[in-house]
# Entry
Amino acid sequence: GAVVSQHPSWVICKSGTSVKIECRSLDFQATTMFWYRQFPKQSLMLMATSNEGSKATYEQGVEKDKFLINHASLTLSTLTVTSAHPEDSSFYICSAGLGTSVNEQYFGPGTRLTVT
Amino acid sequence: GNSVTQMEGPVTLSEEAFLTINCTYTATGYPSLFWYVQYPGEGLQLLLKATKADDKGSNKGFEATYRKETTSFHLEKGSVQVSDSAVYFCALRRYGGATNKLIFGTGTLLAVQP
# Structure
């Protein structure tokens, strides 16, 4: 149980275009979903926390107009990278939790974004 | 602020060797501590956790003890296998926060050779 999927697993897009990444909790309802960014050989950095039906809470330094997060249902959250640039190339990981104060987060396998 | 420091990798061991991956933390209050494992091509999986001082988390032969006096949560395994090759992340979550925010270390790559 507690499976989280991401789609696509990898994507290549041209500079200036937008790309959407989906995160789904397959066998449970996730009140809260988290989006992370992972640079090579570096830690996961939390970008934002989203609760179903409300606006996402972004971490300091993360541009909310560039990284649009939508959490429209209890099983789906999306991250849209708008007007992508090569420096946005990274590994994006989502996780899902049950409630706002949970002991565990369940992670998706990640999405590799390459902007050319 | 809250932070996690892990030993840099990669750590290369022969099968059946003893493993230690060091992790220390800085946090206000009383955090919960976690070890996550990321196998090649997969998402992070919770390996073990400890929620208060002196707790020992254990799973799949791995264990770690929450040491408040040394602010450490070192990961150990007595005899590693090739299948343990992965990236290991130490993380903390501050207790009582409004959101379940995890703070990760940089990860340590473990490579076990047959």
Observations:
- Chain A has a mean pLDDT of 89.
- The first strand of chain A starts at residue 4 and ends at 7.
